[in-house]
Amino acid sequence: MSALICRIELDKKNGIILTVENKDGKITQTAVLNGESITITSKGQKDTSIITQKPDSITIKCKDFTLDTETITCKSTKDTLHKSGQKFDIKSADDMTLKTDSKLTGAADGDSEVSGKNVVFSADNKGEFSGTAITVSAKGKMEVKGTQLALSGSAQTEMEGGASVKVSSKGMLDVKSTGVTTIKGSMTNIQGAMVKLG
Asked: How far apart are CA 38 and CA 15, in angstroms?
């Protein structure tokens, strides 16, 4: 690499301009202090990075930005925005917490997926799942519990078991229909201490 060209310009109107030129690498570095802002520019053949500092702001403009440190703390007293024009990844080697003192909203124009070794959804008040079609499945045992449990379908409701289906109640069991009720099987057994038909 040939010798660098270095210049220092002092001007009462334009401030201080520091310039370093690398003609072999075709890179020009400048630092401008004009009394209103400090601007550091690194310009190459294809790309340019700029750091601009003002009394109320710092702006970094570059093609690739890397921050490598042991700990990072970011705080803002007002709104915070993280935006990506393409893929956005957040990863942690240890526990991760996402918490807000107000409303939490997650939305996607495409598919959404939540997975983990154990996944728990809980609500202090009301919990709701809704969609055009919802499937809940378990490779092992699945339990649905509640103080009151209601299953309803506006068109059709089905309960099916590959081996057997058991419906039981410790109190009264009421099965009724405003239309036709059919109980059918290869063998039908109706029993009780008192059985009333009709």
From this structure: 10
Burial of residue 107, with CB atoms counted within 10 A of its CB: 0-12 exposed, 13-18 middle, 19 or more buried: exposed
Q: Could you tell me the pTM of the whole model? A: 0.71
Question: Are 14 and 30 within 8 A, CB to CB?
Answer: no
Length of the chain: 198
Query: What gap in Å lies between CA 75 and CA 67, rounded to an integer?
Result: 16
Token duo for residue 20 = 């370093």
**Tens-place pLDDT, residues 40-54:** 999 999 999 999 999
Domain ranges for the chain, please list them: 5-56
Q: In the numeric block, which tokens belong to residue 115?
A: 């997975």
Which candidate, 171, 139, 175, places its Cα nearest to that of 159?
175
Q: How far apart are CA 130 and CA 7, in angstroms?
A: 67
Q: How confident is residue 1, by pLDDT bands cut at 50, 70 and 90?
A: low
